[in-house]
Input
Amino acid sequence: MIPLCLWHDMNDEKPPIPKAWRTKVGAILRERKPQTVFIRQRARRDWASLTSCPFDSALCDVIADALENEELIGKKHEMDEPGEAYGFIFQFQNLAIYAKVNLIASGEAVIVYSAHRPLKGHEL
Output
């Protein structure tokens, strides 16, 4: 297990994910109002294969918990859907998890693209 601070050191050139983005996305994930959280099938399958709690609600809560870390670093991504998307690595039940989430342009919904073990080690 690599501590989060080491991931930060390995990705020094990447700044922490902005607090406003983390706060907005975390709130949307926790509220789970209809038509505000969209989880891609691949993310859903990957998440279900990793944990003993394969439910969407658990995935939303775990990502929302990770976003509370003020030092969480991420890599910004351009996605097909307009919005602000970040990929980031966090720790859950002694597992490193890579997630990619898009706060869509309206700021009222999120898309979870990824929720799996990091494919490129601990580099974003």
About this structure: The longest strand covers residues 83-92.
